[in-house]
Design brief:
By secondary structure, the chain is α+β, with helices and mostly antiparallel strands. 31% of the residues lie in helices and 37% in strands.
């Protein structure tokens, strides 16, 4: 009798345990799927760069009707410095599709350089990617704010007194590439 009770208990425990694993697997799959769908429905800009010191990059976005870049239409992404390449990702708000962007390459005045490795924009499954040398054909770095070594993909910020604002703005080619992925 004890054996039957013991076997029944083991059977019930195993059955319930397997059932819970099945539910957990379903939940994790649906959660991953939801995150993937959500990420795919917003315009995303990813700069893969090597940045040695902790910093915060900013992206401004505007469309044809807007005259200039405004703080209200911008996003900051903070990150830890590393000697390894990392993705610095900007997820624009739902429904925002830029025609032009401006990238600010950090607020840390001690940042010596930013090595751009690649650049990517994505929206609803369409992706545009560029390597470092192509990046500098898409984004024009303001020479008063930074020196550029296009061959090596290096941006060296220029700090004058209290002013530290290395930045670049979109070129016509970037506008054309944005139009291709949003249509």
């Amino acid at each position: 009798m004890k054996k039957i009770v013991l076997l029944s208990l083991v059977f019930v425990t195993t059955f319930v345990s397997c059932k819970n694993n099945e539910v957990s697997e379903k939940e994790s799959v649906s959660t991953e799927g939801s995150a993937e769908v959500k990420q795919d429905t917003v315009f995303t800009i990813t700069l893969n760069a090597t940045v040695l010191k902790d910093d915060s990059f900013q992206v401004y976005y505007k469309n044809e009707e807007m005259g200039k870049y405004e703080e209200v239409n911008s996003l900051f992404t903070e990150f830890k410095g590393s000697d390894k390449p990392q993705d610095i990702v900007f997820r624009l708000p739902d429904g925002v599709i830029p025609d032009y962007i401006r990238m600010d390459f950090g607020v840390n005045k001690e940042q010596t350089e930013v090595k751009v490795n690649s650049f990517k924009m994505s929206y609803f499954g369409k992706v545009f990617q560029a390597n470092a040398s192509e990046f500098f054909k898409l984004i024009l770095i303001e020479p008063k704010t930074a020196n550029v070594d296009v061959e090596n993909g290096i941006i060296k910020p220029i700090t004058m007194g209290d002013v530290h604002d290395p930045l670049g703005t979109s070129e016509k080619r970037l506008y054309d590439e944005i139009q291709k992925i949003v249509k």
